[in-house]
Amino acid sequence: MDRIILKGMSFYGYHGAFEAENELGQIFLVDLELYLDLSEAGETDDLEKTVHYGEVFELVKEIMEGKPVQLIEHLAERIAKQVFSHYNRVLETKVKITKNNPPIPGHYEGVGIEIVRKR
Ligand SMILES: Nc1nc2c(c(=O)[nH]1)N=C([C@H](O)[C@@H](O)CO)CN2
């Protein structure tokens, strides 16, 4: 299916299950895919016939820079719900959230989760 992709969005937030994370904060990376039919927008060259990815960025930013929660799963679920409630055209969404520097000793590129939700 066609999709709109928002890749490597980066936000500073205070989410986490540990107190240190809530106090110091850290960078969260978000990748988002919206599955929808893009043929009408392609045919007509009309922004009204698709989803404006700039608006979607603002929606994600509000959640990621908003009230701290414990789990990145909860952030991803909130993003998926907001996408569906704002954009009827979107049939499915994939949300990936990564922390590159969580307070976990060891060597790794990052830790994260990915969810796929259908309307
Ligand atoms: N599945 C998850 N596991 C963990 C999370 C999370 O959000 N989802 N969070 C933490 C801590 O906040 C982590 O950043 C530091 O250990 C632990 N595990």
TrEMBL record:
Transmembrane segments: none annotated. Homooctamer. Four molecules assemble into a ring, and two rings come together to give a cylinder with a hole of at least 13 a diameter. InterPro entries: Dihydroneopterin_aldolase, FolB_dom, GTP-CH-I_C/QueF. Catalyzes the conversion of 7,8-dihydroneopterin to 6-hydroxymethyl-7,8-dihydropterin. Can also catalyze the epimerization of carbon 2' of dihydroneopterin to dihydromonapterin. This is 7,8-dihydroneopterin aldolase. Pathway: Cofactor biosynthesis; tetrahydrofolate biosynthesis; 2-amino-4-hydroxy-6-hydroxymethyl-7,8-dihydropteridine diphosphate from 7,8-dihydroneopterin triphosphate: step 3/4. Keywords: Folate biosynthesis, Lyase. Residues 4-117 form the Dihydroneopterin aldolase/epimerase domain. It catalyses: 7,8-dihydroneopterin = 6-hydroxymethyl-7,8-dihydropterin + glycolaldehyde; 7,8-dihydroneopterin = 7,8-dihydromonapterin. One of its GO terms (molecular function) is dihydroneopterin aldolase activity. Belongs to the DHNA family. Its EC number is 4.1.2.25. GO terms for cellular component: cytoplasm. The gene is folB. GO terms for biological process: folic acid biosynthetic process; tetrahydrofolate biosynthetic process.
